[in-house]
Specification:
By secondary structure, the protein is an alpha+beta fold. The chain is 43% helix and 19% strand.
Length: 698
């Protein structure tokens, strides 16, 4: 029984002995993801006084750390604190607080950066090269680090890495520092996106202070060619301070990009970029910079214009675009370069709203009316003169309220005193033109360009209610005039309607006229065709006639002899008959009363035959009436008169001395006239038939 218990007791005793042995010789195994911070219990060199880290072998925390592996540190002299490696995630920043080092100077807020310390992993180099205790200017970027957490407290977004030393004041300081960094979002880099149109305003919390006359720290270390002072947008605090950077809000701004800035060294405020829209210019009023020379000349007494970079109003305005302008270092006054409409009308404003405080101008007319006159003024500001306007008035709203409003109101009040109410209404165009010309000089005096003055219709004010009565009378008068004009136009319209109807009727008949013209042309063509056929027929007939004539000629030569014989017989017969007729005529002559009457009978017979052949009008177309001595209407035919003259001449019958013709002559005259009248009627009838035939041919 005792033998069986002896073996386990020996084994346990051996194990305990080994453990004691390991402890005595100080065997320590450190994993590769951890470090060992060595604390010396005692040393022949004594203890530390004010330091925490023993650089010379004194008792206390040693500067070097133990990395992963097997180490021998006797527990009688050393204590090894096992701590994890510190990992900074991708895209994050870690901050360092040094427990040991030189004190900060009175003007310092953060400890200076020691490049030799290898991102705070070499405690000995940090302290030897003048590292300072307290929060550090240097930051730690992403990665895994073997920090001596007895010397450095590393603050990340998720955790504070440090070796506790049991001091509540230190713990409170570290927690406060971590909370401040979270408020400033200090564990992430500053990212300014171009799409956000933001600008970063930097405020530096370390370095020398500003002068009492400065409100913004000037730009330093922005030249990339100078490697000694180029701080790369505040990402290298040491170079910023070396370049002469001052504590406070900086004039230099951050534009689009990503920046790893120590938020304990500098904070960032994002503001909007300054945008100058099309139709505007930006007049810069700079709060910083040296005093510049005046560029306005001696005659301009309202202030100074300076060049870019100097304190004051810049002579050159900013053109339309986007600018990374630090609004803490100055301001940009937007001045419209398009037309500005100012309305002296209550409850109405132009697009720029500079006229919100304007209202109608109260007038007193020449005839003691008190109308309110609405006005509109169109003007614009030359972009080159925009700085002069700002230097003189501060902004356009003050220009309108303090200068243009009283000037324009006074001008039209003066005009109103020289015009009656009716004149203000009727002569509005003339008053408007004169006002535009006269007020241009006044606007030019204030560096403004006047385009046009527009006058509205005067209206009744609270003190005068009779204006509407006058206007009503004018409206009635105009209505009457318009009615007269309407009636006149209606009359003209009726006349035009009549002309239109006539034109339409003519258009309807035009077809008939056109058809008749075509028929006339057709008939003319047919007549020409008939004429040609007639010519052909005539030629044919002529040829036939010539043939017949030749035939007849041959026949007639045969018949001539025959006819000659017959003629001789007939001549003899006629001779005998003529002798008989002569005897009969002689008896007739004796019966008529003589040879003269017989001659007249023969003459009239032949004359009648001649008239019939010649187709001469027997009765003249023109009849001349002549009154008789007895007042009667005796119409004497010219032919009858001629006949009477012939008869009187041939028969030697005279009517002189008022003697009457004998009964025998009257009988002869009546007989002749009856014969002539009968033949004349035949002739006239023949003439009329000939005329009718000619008309049909035509």
């Amino acid at each position: 029984m005792l033998a069986s218990l002896t073996v386990p007791i020996i084994a346990v005793g051996s194990l305990i002995g080994l453990i004691i042995l390991w402890k005595l010789i100080g065997l320590r195994i450190i994993p590769n993801n951890k470090i060992g911070i060595v604390e010396k219990w005692w040393s022949a060199k004594g203890s530390l006084n004010e330091q925490i880290i023993a650089l010379n072998g004194e008792a206390g925390y040693q500067p070097e750390v133990l990395r992963g592996g097997i180490h021998f540190r006797t527990p009688f002299k050393y204590k090894v604190h096992i701590c994890p490696l510190v990992t900074i995630p991708q895209g994050q920043i870690a901050y360092v607080f040094a427990r040991d080092g030189k004190p900060l100077e009175p003007t310092q807020t953060l400890g200076r950066i020691i490049p030799e310390c290898n991102n705070f992993q070499n405690v000995r180099e940090f302290l030897i090269n003048g590292g300072q205790k307290g929060p550090q200017r240097g930051i730690i970027r992403e990665g895994t680090y073997a920090f001596n957490l007895a010397q450095f407290i590393v603050i990340t977004e998720d955790k504070v890495h440090y070796l506790p030393m049991g001091t509540h004041a230190e713990d409170a300081t570290i927690n406060k520092m971590a909370e401040l960094l979270r408020e400033r979002d200090g564990f992430k880099p500053i990212v300014i996106k171009g799409s956000d149109d933001k600008v970063g305003i930097i405020t530096v919390h370390d370095g020398p202070s500003l002068n009492k006359d400065d409100i913004i720290a000037p730009t330093v270390g922005d030249n990339a060619a100078d490697a000694e002072t180029f701080h790369n947008n505040f990402q290298d605090p040491e170079k910023f301070l070396k370049a002469g950077g001052l504590r406070g809000r900086q004039y230099q701004v951050l534009v689009d990009g990503t920046y790893f800035i120590n938020r304990l060294f500098a904070t960032v405020e994002l503001i909007d970029k300054t945008t100058i829209e099309v139709g505007f210019v930006g007049v810069v009023v700079s709060y910083i910079g040296p005093k510049g020379s005046d560029s306005t000349g001696e005659e301009y007494k309202h202030g100074e214009l300076v060049e870019k970079g100097f304190r004051g109003v810049w002579r050159e305005p900013l053109m339309p675009g986007k600018y990374a302008f630090n609004t803490y270092a100055g301001k940009i006054v937007r001045i419209p370069t398009t037309n500005i409409i100012l309305k002296w009308i209550s409850n109405q404003s132009g697009n720029h709203r500079y006229d919100e405080n304007l209202k109608e101008v109260s007038l007193i007319t020449k005839d003691a009316f008190e109308p309110s006159l609405p006005l509109s003024v169109v003007m614009h500001i030359d972009y080159k003169k925009a700085p002069l306007v700002i230097q003189r008035f501060g902004d356009v709203k003050m220009l309108v309220d303090q200068t243009l409003d009283p000037m324009v109101s006074a001008y039209f009040k003066n005009i109103g005193q020289t015009k009656t109410l009716i004149q203000l209404i009727h002569e509005r165009n003339e008053i408007q033109a004169v006002a535009s010309n006269e007020m241009k000089a006044k606007f030019n005096h204030y560096n403004l360009e006047l385009e046009e003055v527009l006058i509205g219709t005067p209206s009744s004010s609270a003190n005068d209610n009779k204006i509407e009565l006058i206007l009503a009378q004018l409206r009635d008068r105009q209505i009457a005039l318009e009615q007269v004009e309407t009636y006149s136009q209606q009359q003209k319209a009726a006349e035009k309607q009549r002309e239109l109807n006539e034109a339409e009727a003519k258009a309807v008949q035009q077809r008939v006229l056109t058809e008749s013209d075509i028929n006339i042309q057709i008939q003319g063509n047919q007549g020409k065709a008939e004429y040609q056929r007639a010519l052909q027929e005539a030629s044919k007939i002529k040829a036939i006639a010539e043939a017949e004539a030749a035939k007849i000629r041959s026949i007639s030569e045969g018949e001539a002899a025959k006819i000659k014989a017959i003629a001789e017989a007939e001549a003899e017969k006629e001779a005998r008959v003529g002798i008989g007729k002569a005897m009969a005529i002689e008896e007739q002559v004796r019966a008529y009363g003589g040879s003269r009457y017989q001659l007249v009978q023969d003459i009239m017979t032949r004359f009648t035959a001649a008239l019939e052949k010649s187709k001469i009008d027997l009765v003249p177309k023109t009849v001349i009436s002549m009154g008789s001595e007895k007042g009667g209407s005796n119409v004497t035919n010219a032919f009858e008169l001629l006949l009477g003259l012939i008869i009187n001449d041939k028969l030697d019958i005279s009517t002189e001395d008022g003697r009457e013709e004998n009964q025998q002559v009257k009988n002869i005259r009546e007989s002749i006239l009856k014969s002539i009248d009968k033949n004349a009627l035949n002739v006239m009838s023949s003439v009329d038939e000939n005329k009718d035939r000619e008309g049909l041919k035509k």
